[in-house]
C-alpha cells in the first residue's frame, strides 16, 4: 500500500485507514464478537505501524465496538441488544418518512428501475453464495430510497449508531436466514413506491424492519456467545408507529 509522503498526511491517512479497516472487519464479522485484536498482526497485514491501530481501537471503543483493557489488550465488543433495538426503532421511523417522500415524487421511474435491478442482483449474488456482495446490495436498496428522498444526512446519522444492527444483518445473510421472504419484502416496498401509495409503502417498511425480532432470535440461538445481553423472544417488538417526521417540516413552513 502506498501512503502519502508528507509525514502529517501519512499519519492522518494511516489513522483513518486503520479505523475504517477495523470497523469494516468488525461489522462484517471478520472479527467476530469477543475476538482479540492483535496490533502486531494487523500492522503486518495493513502495512502500517501499531500506533494507528491502537488509536483506531480507542475510537472504536467510543463507538462501543471495542473494549480496551489496560495490560490485557483490545477485544471486539459483544453485540448489545439494547443498541440494536434502539437503532431499529429509529430506522423504522426514518425509513417510513423516506418512502413517503419518494412516493410524492412526480416521476418515480428511475428509482423504481434502480430498486428492481438491485433486488435482481441481490438474488443472483445470494444464489452464488456471495454473501458480502449480497449484503452490500441490501444496503444499496435502502440507500437508494434515502437518496431519492433527499435524506442523505439522516441516512449518515443513522449509520453512525447502527453498527450493532449491521452485525446482526451480516450474520443473517451469512446464516442464509429468511432470504426469500426478505427479497419479497423488498418487492412489496418497491411495488408500493411504483404505485405511489405512501401508506402502503410505509406499512411495508414497518413489516420489513419489524422482522428483526425473528432474525435476532434465530441469530441468538445460533450464536449465543456473541451477545452481551438478551431479552426473551416475546419481549422483542417494534410498535407500529407511523412516522411524524414531516410534522416538523409543516411547522417550519408555518413559521416562515
UniProtKB/TrEMBL annotation:
Keywords: DNA-binding, Transcription, Transcription regulation. Residues 12-79 form the HTH gntR-type domain. GO terms for molecular function: DNA binding. Pfam families: FCD (PF07729), GntR (PF00392). Gene3D superfamilies: GntR ligand-binding domain-like, Winged helix-like DNA-binding domain superfamily/Winged helix DNA-binding domain. PANTHER family: HTH-TYPE TRANSCRIPTIONAL REGULATOR LGOR-RELATED (PTHR43537:SF51), TRANSCRIPTIONAL REGULATOR, GNTR FAMILY (PTHR43537). This is GntR family transcriptional regulator. It comes from Lacticaseibacillus zeae subsp. silagei.
Amino acid at each position: 500500500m502506498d501512503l502519502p509522503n508528507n509525514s502529517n498526511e501519512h499519519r492522518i491517512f494511516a489513522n483513518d485507514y486503520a479505523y475504517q479497516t477495523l470497523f469494516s472487519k468488525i461489522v462484517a464479522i471478520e472479527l467476530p464478537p469477543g475476538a482479540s485484536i492483535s496490533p502486531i498482526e494487523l500492522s503486518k497485514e495493513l502495512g502500517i505501524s501499531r500506533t494507528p491501530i491502537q488509536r483506531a481501537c480507542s475510537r472504536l471503543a467510543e463507538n462501543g465496538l471495542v473494549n480496551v483493557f489496560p495490560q490485557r489488550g483490545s477485544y471486539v465488543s459483544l453485540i448489545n441488544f439494547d443498541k440494536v433495538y434502539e437503532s431499529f426503532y429509529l430506522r423504522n421511523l426514518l425509513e417510513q418518512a423516506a418512502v413517503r417522500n419518494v412516493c410524492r415524487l412526480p416521476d418515480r421511474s428511475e428509482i423504481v428501475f434502480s430498486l428492481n435491478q438491485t433486488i435482481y442482483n441481490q438474488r443472483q449474488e445470494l444464489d452464488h453464495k456471495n454473501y458480502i456482495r449480497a449484503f452490500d446490495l441490501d444496503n444499496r436498496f435502502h440507500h437508494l430510497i434515502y437518496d431519492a428522498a433527499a435524506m442523505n444526512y439522516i441516512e449518515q446519522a443513522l449509520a453512525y449508531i447502527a453498527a450493532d444492527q449491521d452485525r446482526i444483518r451480516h450474520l443473517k445473510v451469512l446464516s442464509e436466514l429468511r432470504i426469500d421472504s426478505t427479497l419479497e419484502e423488498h418487492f412489496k416496498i418497491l411495488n408500493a413506491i411504483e404505485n405511489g401509495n405512501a401508506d402502503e409503502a410505509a406499512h411495508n417498511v414497518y413489516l420489513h424492519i419489524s422482522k428483526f425480532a425473528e432474525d435476532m432470535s434465530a441469530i441468538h440461538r445460533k450464536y449465543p456467545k456473541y451477545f452481551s445481553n438478551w431479552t426473551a423472544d416475546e419481549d422483542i417488538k417494534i410498535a407500529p408507529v407511523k412516522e411524524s417526521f414531516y410534522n416538523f417540516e409543516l411547522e417550519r413552513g408555518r413559521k416562515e
